Each structure stands twice: as C-alpha cells, then as structure tokens.
Amino acid sequence: MPSRVSAAAASAPVAGAAVIRPRVLVIAPKDSYRTAPYIESALAIGIDVLIASEGRHSLVSALAQGLHIDLNDPSGSLDLIEKEARNGSFQGIVATDDSTTEMASLAARRLGLPHNRPEAVRIARRKDFARGTLQAASIQVPDFRCICLDRLIENQIEDFPFPCVVKPLAMSGSRGVIRCDDREQFRKAVRRVEGIIADAADESERRNILVEAFIPGFEIAVEGILRHGDLDVLAIFDKPDPLNGPYFEETYYITPTRLAAEVRDRVRVQVEKACRAYGLAEGPVHAECRINQEGVWMLELAARTIGGLCNRLFRYGVGSCLEELVLYHAIGVPLERPEMTDAAGVLMIPIPKAGVLRRVEGVSAAAAVPFIQEVVIQVREGYELIPLPEGSSYLGFIFAVAPDAQKAEQALRDAHARLNIVVAPLWKGVLLAG
C-alpha cells in the first residue's frame, strides 16, 4: 500500500517545522457516489479536501459544509473558487465525474494549477466530438453519424449499414446504448433513447443521438493517470463476457489482463494517442477498447476514474486505492506502486429484471466461495429496479482475489450462481378523479 505520510512529509519546508497539509479541491455533482471514497482516501493519506458541489441542502456533511457552486454558472462558480483559494491555497483540483471535468479544468487554469484544457475534457465528455477528433487523428474508431431527432430519421441513416449501435451523446455506464440489426429495431431503439435523454440539461444532447457501426471483438477497460502528457497505465481489465447486445451491461472485470504482451503494448499506444488527440495531459483517464483482427478500436475515453465501486478493485489487484493515486497526482507527489502477484476481479451484479427488490438470498453462501473477498449489495429492499438501457446502476458488487485470473473469474461466477435475487412486479397506481 502507498505510504501514509509521503504527501504530508512533502509539504514540510524544513526539518522540525510544522507540517502543512496539502489541500485539494474536489468538484463533484451533489449525488456522486465517488465523493465519499475521495474523502476517505484524503483522510488516510493526510490531505485536506474541500468538496465543491451544488449540495447546499445535502444530508452529507462534506457537501453541506463545502463550497456551494452552480455548475450552470461557470463564471460565478469560478469567482467563488478563486475567493476560497485566497483563504487557503489549493495544491490541486480533482473532478469526480464527467459533468464536473470542465469546471475543474477551468478552475485549475484560473488558479495556475496543472490541468487539462477545457476543450479537451469537453471532447472527452461528448461522444460525437470524441469520434470526430479520433477519426481526424487517424485513430481506429467505428464509423459513426450524428442523428438529429428533429429531422426525418430514415433519411439520415438511409445508407448506414447494420448492425449498428444507437447511443446518447453524453451518458455513461452503457445507459441508452442499444444494438440494432435492422431498420425496425433501429426505429424502436431511437424512441427508447429519445425518452432516456429527454431530461438532459444540454439541448443538443436532448435533440441528437449517435449511431455507429457495431464492432465485434474482445472488450477491455484501461485505467491510467496522465502526468505532463505521459500515460501511466495502472491496469488493463479483461471483460470475459461477450458484449454483443442488444444492451451492453458490463459484468466482469478481471486483472491482470490475459492479453499477450504485444497486444498490451498496442493498447497502451492507442490509448496514449487518443489522449493526445483530445489534448488531455493531466489526471485520471478511463478507456474502453475492442480488439479484433483489425486491431485496437477506441470506444470510449473519459477524463475521470472508473465508475461504481469498481475502484475497490485497485486495492485487491493493484495494491493501491485509486482515489489515493489520483490525490497524490493532484498535489504533484509521484508514487511507486507495489508489484502484485495475485489476480483480482469484480462482478458488477446485473439487475435481472424490472420491479421492486424484495430480497437477495444466498449472500453468505456467495461470500463463502474460495477467493471471494467481499459481497456488497447496494440496493435496499423495497427499491425499484430499472435494468438497462433505461437504468444506470447495478444491484451490487462481488470482489475476488486469486492466484491467477482464471481462478478469480471462476470464483466470481460461482459466487454469483449462489445468489437468488427476488423481484416483485411494480404496480403503479392510477389516481382517478371523482
């Protein structure tokens, strides 16, 4: 595990002087599940964090007592951040989610801290901008087209081949992503995606969708940190389940990857080229790629960390907490990671069907499977379950550590088989007047 004193020690100007704790501004949406891990990591390694969010009335004290900004008012928010920096300087700024990366880059630029250009994180957040940028840089991406929902759809895809994939311009977690094998499936998919994006804050994200060619192949995820434009690959995760649609629910992440060394090198080069094409130079990146006989295809590249509780996988598979690595980077402290000998994996427990969760049976039996470290059920009994493509969350997570990747994967599959998820139908009442 990383040193618990290195960040604080780096701040002490001379021997015997009082240690000045580094201070980091963490910009987060009010409902981000990533906020708590950053707070916990900061406490563990001796860094002070201030949370900037719209959570003025939040029940979470770090949000309620933090800096209250309006993400829809960049100018006013930047003034508040600059004023706060005069009360106590920040050594770095971290964005937790896609929706706050641009604000973080603007704030870091104003304060003279290492940052990505706002244009770069905007490209990373928007799939249509990203596809065009990568294509212009001769990086292998699926053929694509941006479709305007205000115009006749049929005319816009008349010559586009099937199978294709329909997706929103700016959503994560496979929400709204649907494979279509013919025109009838395409029409139905467009109607579903239109409903999913109806509440998007950005008008262009409400009125446009992306259509791209379906790329067969083996899918992987890449987690890394950029420092001055150089990519440090923290982990490559195999996704052993085939992701062929019609929806693209991610389940298993296994590390270390079982790809050959030559393929791993090609993946690293391709992700680094994509970062340069976007203009990203600092901080965490999360990439999704597909690999087939034609090479490495870039599917996604986000200027943030992996989502959900998958960050816990780093404790098991990399030997360091992911948020600690990001915070260390933010204050400019290099960190050597220990060499890991075991394999690790996570299962994002899929939601089996829509309805109301009654209970999850077999949790103790799943936890008793050899090599299983932890079984976490996040959804409480009585809560509504919404599967993909409308939904965006998982029932919970199972973590495993084993001597090799195959054993870690099998342990997760065995543990999942012991769970019985009981779901009741959801009856939505209708109020009748009279």
Report on the architecture of this protein.
It is a single chain. The chain is α+β, with helices and mostly antiparallel strands and 434 residues long. The chain has helices at 6-9, 35-45, 61-64, 74-87, 98-111, 118-125, 127-136, 153-156, 183-196, 203-207, 261-278, 313-317, 322-330, 363-367, 405-417, and strands at residues 23-27, 48-53, 67-68, 92-95, 144-148, 164-168, 178-180, 208-213, 218-227, 230-238, 252-255, 283-292, 295-302, 343-349, 355-361, 372-377, 384-385, 396-402, 420-424. Among the domains are: 6-116, Rossmann fold (3-Layer(aba) Sandwich), CATH 3.40.50.20; 143-213, Dna Ligase, domain 1 (2-Layer Sandwich), CATH 3.30.1490.20; 341-426, D-amino Acid Aminotransferase, Chain A, domain 1 (2-Layer Sandwich). The termini are far apart. Strand 9 and strand 10 (230-238) form a beta hairpin. Helix 4 (74-87) packs across helix 5. The chain is globular.
Please give the count of helices.
Answer: 15
Secondary-structure arrangement, i.e. CATH architecture of the domain at 6-116: 3-Layer(aba) Sandwich
**Approximate helicity band:** 25-40%
How many extended strands?
Answer: 19
The first-level CATH class name of the domain at 6-116: Alpha Beta
Large-scale geometry: globular
Largest sheet: 4 strands, parallel
Assign the structural class, choosing from mainly alpha, mainly beta, alpha/beta, alpha+beta, or little secondary structure.
Answer: alpha+beta
**Distance separating the two termini:** 66 Å
Biggest sheet: strands side by side, in what order? 3-2-1-4
Q: Averaged pLDDT, please?
A: 90
Q: Rg to the nearest angstrom?
A: 22 Å
List low-confidence stretches. 1-15
What is the fold-level CATH name, i.e. the topology of the domain at 6-116? Rossmann fold
